[in-house]
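Practice problem: F-box domain-containing protein
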Amino acid sequence: MRRTKRLKTNEDNQNNARHAHDYINTLNDDCLILIFELLPICDRISIERVCKRWRILAKESWRYQKFIDFNIDSWGSYKFIDCNDLKKVAKRCGQYVKHLEVRPWQRISEIKNLQSVAKFLPNLEVLDLRDYNLSPKVLKSLLINCENIIQLSIRNIVKTFKDTDLSDALSICKKLQEFRFKNSNIKFSVEIFEALPCDTIQKIHLNKCTRISWNKLPEVFSKYKNLNSLSLTTCICNNGMSGWIINCLEKIPLEQLHLSKNDGIADSFLIELSNKCGTLKNISIMHSNKITDHGISALTQMPSLECVTMQALPLVTEKGISNICRQNKFEWFSISGTKKIIKK
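Answer key — structure tokens:
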């Protein structure tokens, strides 16, 4: 009796699954492709075994896969993503992927496995490598195979990584437009800046790069024909650096400047900046204990400046803010950290 009941239950489950399959197959191809796109990667591969139609449509759905990371939401039930898993995915969508992001807490078993799939990513444009035990060999292999990289982000690589390793890798990126780097271990030598492509580089974002030889860089910066955005966070440690940085900035058509947590930034820097960097349109100054009302008043002398954002400047007073607002110079002026935000 129990066996008969169990068999009937199994038969009912099979019938339900069959009916569900029949119902979903009434959807047209476009609807099914949209559904498949929303599935985790492990399921998208599995459904290819359901039937011939699903196999064709599942493979078609990879055409719209522009971004790959290794989050659990993206991959589903995989505990660790090994080389074979990467190859399966890369063979299906590698030619369409534009953006690859790798973070340390994600479940890729070894970052060196990326070497074996790099050749399947010929159109990759954005490569974001964060906090990983990244070796120079792996980085060079990725960049050699992905020659269309226009945006490269590297954060917190290991101490064994040398400045020469980084400059060698960057010299491969002939089309690079944006470079982001965060690391306090590497000496940021002149060779690293020289390795950036002078004709194409437009944005540089540096974080915790305290070992920069600014006094050797004005000549290098003068070769950057299209560099219009520079971000420096915890990069300027003393006032002696500020003069050399101004010498670098006046060599380029800079439009956006972001400065945050730089102990070497004081009023004298902003005054000199206003005199020598007339192309600036957008400036952001954050977390500085040396900027006063005198320094921010110099910003009103910049002919092209449109947007000013300031945050956590404890020496700036309401009087200084009011003086700037009365001049009505900027399209956007925002300040926080003094419990006052003004938008015009």
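Discussion: The longest strand covers residues 126-130. Students who identified this feature from the tokens alone can consider the problem solved.
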